[in-house]
Amino acid sequence: xxxxxxxxRTLDAxxxxxxxxVLPIAAHHHQQVRRxxxxxxxxxxxxADLMQDSPALVLSVLREANSKGSTLGExxxxxxxxxxxxxLKRAEELLARLPARPLTDIPLPLRQIQLISQxxxxxxxxxxxxRLARLWQEIHWGSLLFLSPVWVLLAxxxxxxxxxxxxxxxxxxxxxxxxxxxxxVSLFELCLALAERWRLPAWILQGYRLLIDDRxxxxxxxxxxxxxxxxxxxxxxxxxxxxxxxxLTQPANSILLANVIAVSAHNAWSGIHTKRWHGLNSxxxxxxxxxxxxxxxxxxxxxxxxLDTAGLWHPAEALLWPWNARHFQAPKPIAAPPVxxxxxxxxxxxxxPSAFSNVQQLTTCARQAVQAVGLSRVVLLLADRSHSRLQxxxxxxxxxxxxxxxxxxxxxxxxxxxxxxxxxxxxxxANVAQFSALLPGELKALLPSEHLLIRSxxxxxxxxxxxxADQSGQPISDTLVQAFTKTTQCIERALDTFSKRxx
Length: 503
Hints:
By secondary structure, the protein is of the alpha+beta class.
């Protein structure tokens, strides 16, 4: 039975939950590294090169090497240093504790965010490592691990990634607001706290502190970068601002700049945020913008050729699209189905005696009636007699994985309340933060939305089903809510009539 983990709402609670989160390793990587560790002919450099194909393994090794139990005070900043500190025997023991999973069993959002980190490392190597050759290890490992606190967040709650994409990339909501709604805390503050606890490389800590404490300096840099076609004026403004000029010479900034290139490209190469960060990289590297963008695109293509992108999205693919294309598109307005369809289905539900010979027929008609009012995504769960188990009976507009999904109501306060007596709940941006954390992650993954209708359906005053429906994430009008309410009343009448026929 699937059980969901509730979302914390404070920094301390998040740290408590995520600090010990174990990351799964792809089974084929796990096996390759296990063999390499047992091969005396392999050098540490060769083993490190093999390990870096699995970002989760890299993070696990560094966390282990930098754990509080380490006798050395200085944190390991590279994978080779961490392996030297651990020794091969301890590394083997660590690998044995890490779960090996087929790729299909590793949450897709976790694999996607790790791919973004790998793309960032390729950008960092292509843009900065050659220019700062003596610092290539700091640049490479720092850029790869910069988003690693987000890896453990998505390992624990993979549904958050799709919800973030929907609200930030598609709906255009401010990221800070979305983070507070979903997490209760700032994402950057959470990442910094985890990075400090794991003793990640110093440049990673510096990058998060910049995003938290020096946003004014970063804003000035981005504003100045917009004048990329006025190099003389740029230089004059830099000469007048020594603090900003010093910041633009710090090698540590390279890992932050590489990661924002990779994250912004996840949606579109021509997006406004992508252009801003390209401009800042142009200023940082003192390169013409057109030349820099050519390098960035080449690095992306090289990254896509080198990495395992099966089932994942790599922005290099979008380089073949029309320039203004977007990976994430706002859904087109949904045309309302004919009213006659809805009336016909409701007439069938209200028929006396019952028009249905089994539960499957009744729930199919119920699902179609809900769709007929204009709600494109529907999940209908059937409760057992003791209210200890909920199983998906009908679904529409969601992934096929919904079939057979089983939930334990004990794991969700909202589900327990809905099962106590018939009730209806409407989620909106104003209350979604209050209720979202109390809903199972599996349901939120099926219906990533802050506009959601939830109804418990009763037969003879006993709740027998839970109904979840939305309009593909779009706002739900009051008229549509009224139509939904009428439809559920017809479904409940049908349940009453059907139960009498069964007797």
